[in-house]
Structures are given as structure tokens and as C-alpha cells.
Amino acid sequence: MATSKIKKGDTVKVITGKDKGREGKVTSVKDGKVVIEGINQVTKHTKPSQANPQGGIVQQSAPIDMSNVMYVSKGKASRVGFKMEGDKKVRYAKATGEVID
Predict the structure, then answer these.
(1) How far apart are CA 65 and CA 51, in angstroms?
(2) N or C: which terminus of the chain carries fewer CB neighbours within 10 A?
(3) Is 27 exposed, middle or buried (0-12, 13-18, 19+ CB in 10 A)?
(4) What is the pTM of this model?
């Protein structure tokens, strides 16, 4: 599989959907979807368990498709590209030219 353009810990901006325009930090990336803290909140009914003995209704962040978010570089939404720096492949923000990692 190709290297992912969005990684855990990145700050991203939602570009479409009910949370359009909101920014947050990526908490997980899996199968082309990202979970962003505080964004795309859904209500989930849970049974009582060891972790939550009361059970009940809880709010949690649901996954969003990776194509619906953009990386934020210096407060500006940017596409992400790859380039070789020496013998290392690095991600960089196309809007600012800044190397991400």
C-alpha cells in the first residue's frame, strides 16, 4: 500500500460534510479513514461493562474518509506531497513548501 498523506497526530481541516471548516488533531488512521478528536460526533448506546458499569448513551468520534480532510500547515489548508531529500522520502505541504517530517 502507498504511504498515507495524513498520519496520526497531524492537524487537519474538514473540507466537506456536516463539520466543514472545523479543525482537529488526528487520533487514528485506518483503511483510508481518519478519526479526528471532537469532530463527527455520533451518539452510541452502550451496554454496561467493566469500563462503563452504568452503560447508557455516549458521544464518540466516528471515522471520516481521508479525502474529506486537508492537512493544516501554518494555519493554512494544504495538499500533501512527497519528495526525496537526500536519500529520504519526506512529506511536504504544497501550499508552503514546508517539510512535515
Answers:
(1) 29
(2) N
(3) middle
(4) 0.83
The predicted-structure confidence for 8-56, as pLDDT tens digits, reads as follows 999 999 999 999 999 999 999 999 999 999 999 999 999 999 988 999 9
Backbone angles phi, psi at 67, to 5 degrees: -70, -15
Contacts 24+ apart (CB under 8 A), 31-34: 32/65, 32/66, 32/67, 33/63, 33/64, 33/65, 33/66, 34/6, 34/63, 34/64, 34/65, 34/66, 34/69
DSSP secondary structure string for all residues of 22-82:
-EEEEEEEETTEEEETTSSEEEEEE---SS-TT-EEEEEEPPEEGGGEEEEETTEEE-EEE
